Every structure is written in structure tokens, then in C-alpha cells.
Amino acid sequence: MKTTLVMKILLIEDEEVLTSILLHSLTQQHYVVDIAQDGYVGWKYTQIYN
Questions:
Q1: Residue 26 in domain
Q2: How many domains does the chain fold into?
Q3: Averaged pLDDT, 36-48
Q4: From CA 2, how far away is CA 11, in angstroms rounded?
């Protein structure tokens, strides 16, 4: 059985166009991407899912 390593990234960005570009690029490279639209939400995310 082959084990697959999943690389997960938290993208914190408030510009929708830049978020879309980065999300597309990262998912094309097989990353799993979670998005937070500002620093506070990103910080809270790290506290919950750490």
C-alpha cells in the first residue's frame, strides 16, 4: 500500500484576485489550500486546527 503525503497550506490574503491566482497555482501543484480572508481569521484558524 502506498502512503500519500498531503501538503496543506493556509493562505491568508484579502485580495480576491490574488487569492484566486494563488489558489489555482497551488492546487495545480497538488496542495490542499485553506483560505482566510484576513490575519485575524487566519490566526483563529491556526488556534482551532493546530
A1: yes
A2: 1
A3: 95
A4: 28
